[in-house]
């Protein structure tokens, strides 16, 4: 259950983010918006820029599995300096997630999970509440922030770019035409 709630969702989200970056880079090249301008863009002065949102999304995709028992996660110490570096971060996270042994993440949903933040706050939760109340919201926050920054800058992204993986579940003959 814990594996199914985390790893596949993070893989879907990171693949969508990678495709969004490709689309935004191509749009930027066609419209005079450079990579550095996109990397530095942010939604508000006190929010992190796009490059940090990508790094945080990657971190938030691997941290849950490590806190639940997986080992060997890649580190994401610095923001990517260009789109190739952002894509490399995503690729590293995806490769690691793809190699996780399901049994290392699974386990009792009520087992304790503790973690601390750099500001000294410490949280004690169960594995299930950790995934539901911390891991998922943190991942999606940074995923949405990156998407919103790209949209804010003018990249032609839509909801289908955010949840494109849902097309695998589309019932044949039900897609809108035209």
UniProtKB/TrEMBL annotation:
Signal peptide: none
InterPro entries (alphabetical): DinB/YfiT-like, DUF1993
Highest taxon above the source species: Bacteria
PANTHER family attached to this UniProt entry: BLL2446 PROTEIN (PTHR36922), DUF1993 DOMAIN-CONTAINING PROTEIN (PTHR36922:SF1)
Protein name: DUF1993 domain-containing protein
Organism: Sphingopyxis alaskensis (strain DSM 13593 / LMG 18877 / RB2256) (Sphingomonas alaskensis)
């Amino acid at each position: 259950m814990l594996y199914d709630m985390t790893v596949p969702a993070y893989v879907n989200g990171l693949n969508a983010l990678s495709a969004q970056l490709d689309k935004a880079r191509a749009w930027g090249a066609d419209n005079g918006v450079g990579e550095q301008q996109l990397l530095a863009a942010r939604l508000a002065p006190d929010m992190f820029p796009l490059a940090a949102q990508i790094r945080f999304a990657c971190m938030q995709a691997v941290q849950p599995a490590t806190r639940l028992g997986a080992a060997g996660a890649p580190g994401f110490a610095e923001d990517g300096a260009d789109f190739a570096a952002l894509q490399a971060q995503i690729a590293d996270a995806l490769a690691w997630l793809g190699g996780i042994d399901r049994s290392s993440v699974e386990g009792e949903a009520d087992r304790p999970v503790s973690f601390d933040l750099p500001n000294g706050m410490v949280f004690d939760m169960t594995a299930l509440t950790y995934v539901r109340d911390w891991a998922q919201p943190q991942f999606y926050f940074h995923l949405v922030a990156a998407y919103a920054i790209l949209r804010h800058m003018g990249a032609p992204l839509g909801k289908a770019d955010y949840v494109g993986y849902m097309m695998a579940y589309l019932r044949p003959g039900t897609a809108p035409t035209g």
